[in-house]
Design goal:
Layout lengths: L1 H15 L11 H41 L6 H21 L2
Length: about 100
C-alpha cells in the first residue's frame, strides 16, 4: 500500500509541475531531485516574470517622459542625467555644501 501511495503522490506532484508521465518510472531519488529542481525553476521563472512586468511599466513611463520633454531624445539620456544628479548630490553631501 505504501508503494502505491508513493507512486500516486509522485504522479500528483508531477502533474502539478506539468511534467510528462514517463518520469514516473525513474527511481525515487532522481524523481525527487527533478521535482525539487523544477520547483526551484518555477519560482525563478515567476520572479523573472514579475521583474519583466515591473520593467515594462518603467519603460513605458520613461518613453512618456521622452515624448513630453524637449530636453531628452532617448531613455538613455534620462538615465545618464539621473546618474549625474545622484553623483552631484553625493559630492555636495561629502563637502557639506
Amino acid at each position: 500500500m505504501l508503494v502505491r501511495s508513493s507512486r500516486k503522490l509522485r504522479y500528483i506532484r508531477i502533474q502539478i509541475l506539468r511534467l510528462p508521465l514517463p518520469w514516473l518510472s525513474m527511481d525515487c531519488g532522481a524523481c525527487d531531485r527533478l521535482i525539487d529542481e523544477c520547483s526551484m525553476l518555477a519560482r525563478r521563472r515567476d520572479s523573472l516574470v514579475r521583474c519583466i512586468q515591473q520593467s515594462v511599466v518603467s519603460q513605458r513611463y520613461l518613453e512618456s517622459v521622452v515624448d513630453a520633454a524637449d530636453d531628452f531624445r532617448e531613455i538613455r539620456e534620462i538615465i545618464a542625467r539621473y546618474h549625474t544628479l545622484i553623483s552631484t548630490r553625493q559630492v555636495c553631501e561629502l563637502f557639506s555644501y
